[in-house]
Amino acid sequence: MKASVLLKSSLLTSLFVISSCATTKYSEDVAQNNYSNLEAGKIYVVTPRDGSKKQTILFRNVAGDNIIGTKGKKDSTEVVIPKTNIASVKDRSKARVTTGAVVIGAAAAAAIVISSSRAD
User: Fold this and answer.
1) Residue 60 belongs to domain with CATH number
2) Is the Cα dihedral 65, 62, 95, 55 positive or negative?
3) Which first-to-last residue range defines the signal peptide (predicted)?
């Protein structure tokens, strides 16, 4: 009985973690990438292809072959990133929600396992 509940809770937790770790990825072919799902006024973390440091930007718009934004809400320094140099773009607010959900899910699974082990 213990192994069954432990197995079920572990499987449920791993399924939850895998499904909540979604990110917006872009392919090598820049012509196929659709940057229209980026919303102006939201903060995104852009990972470059060349291995340089990730950039956090407040997205403004897409102009030609570049993504344009600012360094943040308080820093209005303009940031221009070529589309050809973008490996991934992540929504920072969704990442925080995902992290919180993973922590809550792990705590719930641990509570289920502990309570089922004490019930026997």
Assistant:
1) 2.30.30.100
2) positive
3) 1-24
- The domain of 112 spans 2-119
**What is the rounded distance in angstroms from the CA atom of residue 87 to the CA atom of residue 46?**
8
What is the full per-residue pLDDT of the chain (120 aa) written as tens digits? 455 666 666 766 666 665 555 555 555 555 666 777 788 888 888 888 888 898 889 999 988 889 999 988 888 899 999 888 888 888 767 656 666 777 777 777 777 777 777 765
> Beta-carbon neighbour count of residue 109 at 10 Å?
20
Q: pTM of this prediction?
A: 0.59
Phi, psi dihedrals of residue 71, rounded to the nearest 5°: -70, -20
Instruction: Return the bridge partners of 92, or none.
Output: none
CA distance 12 to 62: 40
Provide the sign of the torsion angle of the four alpha carbons 10, 20, 18, 59, taken in this order: negative
- State how beta strands 43-48 and 24-25 pair: unpaired
